[in-house]
Amino acid sequence: MSVHSTSSRQAGTSVAAAVTGLVVTLVAFVVVFSAFLLAPLALFGVALACYLVLRPRSARSAGATTSDTPSGTASDDGAGALGHGFGSGVR
Hints:
Mean pLDDT: 76
Low-confidence stretches: none
């Protein structure tokens, strides 16, 4: 019968390697988590930019000029073409 004096457990990682692994894991978590938070905002920004660029020209300048309405038909409350016909029977 022989007795073995070596330990059956393998040598563990050093403290520096464990801390490095923890820091890498936390950085990966922060990058992925922030990507999931910022992706919807970026998507909405791109969608807004596409909307602003691709909307019809008439919608862009609807409130800019009121020269298309005759002078006598504009509402007397100063709303102009934007408020035309909205709530006209309420007065």
